[in-house]
Design a protein that fits this description.
This protein has 2 domains: 155 residues, Heat Shock Protein 90 (2-Layer Sandwich); 60 residues, no CATH class. The protein contains 5 helices and 12 strands. α1 packs across α4.
């Protein structure tokens, strides 16, 4: 087993478990878009573990490095760009006492707290990286123990693909959908960013200009 310093610790006190689950689902959606593979699945097994699966290339520990992702930066359809959300999610799960196991053909990743290299007096959050339990696993599987059904349900409401929404019209700027019973929802590339009770419709913005990008970066 090797330890990978996540260079992140107990932050994002305003985040709850639904925010963290949202980030895993967003990553799975992005991977399905980038690799043109099957849609992600969010299921719960008999032992109470929630499993978020995509059928892409398989998560590697190198994907935990916080940096701009050239592949995502040049693809206008994906949600994430910088590789930050996954680490934020892992830190939130750790703070909330959730057990995490990420499995792919490249290896198994869990969370642990160990001393920082060359600084024995500082203990921080690390990814514990082990050889793959299933070397032929055709997916990435993020397994969560300690997340409630409500947390997952709330996380799924953040995405248009899980919403019971009826398309009205496609345009060059995005799509118009019928509003929900409580009002209109604003999505960007399929992820909810706002609710507007006075809107007549819901909107999924897919043509993202520089102003929207700057606003999203500030919000991030």
């Amino acid at each position: 087993m090797k330890h990978f310093d996540l260079i992140i610790d107990k932050i994002l006190e305003s985040w709850d478990l639904s925010h963290a689950a949202r980030e895993l689902i967003a990553n799975a959606i992005d991977e399905s878009i980038l690799t043109n593979t099957a849609s992600p699945e969010v299921t719960k097994d008999e032992a109470g573990w929630w499993r978020i699966r995509d059928y892409g290339r398989g998560l590697r520990y190198q994907d935990l490095i916080q940096s701009e992702n050239p592949e995502k930066l040049t693809n206008p359809a994906v949600i994430g760009k910088f590789g930050i959300g996954l680490k934020d999610a892992l830190a939130t799960f750790d703070r909330k006492g959730v057990s995490v196991l990420i499995r792919s053909r490249h290896g198994d990743i869990s969370l642990t707290r160990v001393t920082k290299h060359s600084f024995d007096d500082i203990v921080t959050l690390h990814a514990a990286v082990s050889p793959a339990s299933f070397p032929n696993l055709p997916r990435t599987e993020c397994c969560l123990q300690g997340v409630s059904d409500t947390d997952i349900a709330v996380a799924k409401t953040m995405f248009l693909r899980f919403a019971e929404s009826t398309l009205v019209e496609d345009t060059k700027f995005g799509a118009v959908h019928h509003r929900t019973p409580v009002g209109g929802v604003i999505y960007i590339n399929g992820m909810k960013v706002a609710e507007e009770p006075n809107f007549l419709f819901s909107y999924n913005i897919t043509s993202i200009n520089s102003t929207i990008k700057r606003a999203l970066n500030r919000e991030r």
